[in-house]
Request: fold
Amino acid sequence: MKSGGLAPDAAGLGLRRSLMGSLQAAPPGSFDFLETAPENWIGVGGPLGEQFADLAARHPIVCHGLSLSIGGPAALDETLLRKVRRFMDAHRVAIYSEHLSACGDSHGQLYDLLPLPFTEEAVHHVAARIRRAQDIVGQAIAVENISYYAAPFQAMPEIDFVNAVLAEADCRLLLDVNNIVVNATNHGYDASAFLRGLPGERIAYIHVAGHYDEAEDLKVDTHGAAVSDPVWALLAEAYRVHGRKPTLLERDFNFPPFEELIGELDTVRRHLAGAAEARRDAA
Reply:
């Protein structure tokens, strides 16, 4: 079964401007899809816009938003959503995702991902905004489980909050495996139990990324390092529990040589292939 136009064994990279030349020159088959923040490309013209259009014409694109503040207190940015829809239509984008967070209020944009209170009131608030966003973009969107370091208020466990939002909004999930490992370490819960408690049928695709080990009980979600062994292990478990899903390797800075980045993406592919082989053996 394909997910939003992506095959379940698809392995992708983030489209960063610093990688543009390498992505354009990469041999066919180096990666299966690209993920980009639409805010960074809407309205971009000239040579850079042409380079983006070239990549979008040759590779499937998914959109991962940064600034919608889907759970925030300010009015939903419907102007942005309409621009996103036009962008998606122009580049045949099959998936639009955002963070299950707030990143601003009526006074402006904070450019950070703030956790929401885990309450019934917050579930209703964010679910209504997700439904409205889905109406505007014309499809179900995916929301990502974010990493967080302090919780504003928790009347329910994180897993119950995430599942309640997915059910009430009738939306999809962008499963970030690294964020589960980070949060499980920082907040003292079982990463495997959290993973197994998620609704696999709602997963649109998966993120894996690197983090920084500040201390034994503190991990910082950086997207600036190689993926760690605990994250690879949880990714393999995600495939066993929920089946293979399109998977994106996130890297936002401290980029290694492009060949090394592709080598790390090949690790994603080996896990996908291993999950497929295990499924065939079981059958």
In short: The chain has a mean pLDDT of 94.
